[in-house]
Amino acid sequence: MTANTTAVRYRERLLPGPGFFGAWLLLIPATALVMTPINKSAAIPVAVGLYVLVALIFFALSPVIQVENGELRAGRAAIPVSLIGAVEPLGADALRDAIGPGADARNYMVVRGWIHRGLKLEITDESDPTPHWILTSRKPLALAEALGAMGHAG
């Protein structure tokens, strides 16, 4: 394999936005307030440590979407790019429809509520019961372009 075929074409971690982590800063004074009667000198360090722990948990649990080596990885699942048919970008309304009450329960979804656009990928593998993958992405067009760069014909 050449260096060109092993390079990562696209990678995105579906983290919450900065506003989310900013709002969680309220955890520091709340924890300090609870800790002060117990141990005044440990209140602030424990509060900051708890905030860092929560931030690390959100980071660790945020799924990654990645296109590399002819494969799309989304969360825990992976599929060869050659088995992806039509790629449909989804705005906020289309995404809501794609994951809403009328959605096919067989679809594989990597969806985070803080991301309001994404892609709907048709799966062409006849042995796979999953008709579509629905993925949220902050850069759905770049993801679609990366899928095309890996030889996707849809």
Q: Give the end-to-end Cα distance, rounded to a whole number of Å.
A: 25 Å
**Proportion of helical residues:** 25-40%
> Outline, from the CA principal axes?
elongated
Number of strands: 8
Structural class: alpha+beta
Q: Total helix count?
A: 6
Q: What proportion strand? A: 25-35%
Largest sheet: 4 strands, antiparallel
Order of strands, widest sheet: 1-2-3-4
Mean pLDDT: 91
The helix/strand order is: HEHHHEEEEHEEEH
Explain what the structure shows.
A 4-stranded antiparallel beta sheet has the order 1-2-3-4, with helices on one face. Strands 5-7-8-6 form a 4-stranded mixed beta sheet. Helix 3 (27-35) crosses helix 4 (43-61). Strand 2 and strand 3 form a beta hairpin. It contains 6 helices and 8 strands, in the order H-E-H-H-H-E-E-E-E-H-E-E-E-H. The mean pLDDT is 91. The longest helix is centred in the middle third of the chain and has 19 residues, at 43-61. It is α+β, with helices and mostly antiparallel strands and 154 residues long. Helices cover 37% and strands 26% of the residues.
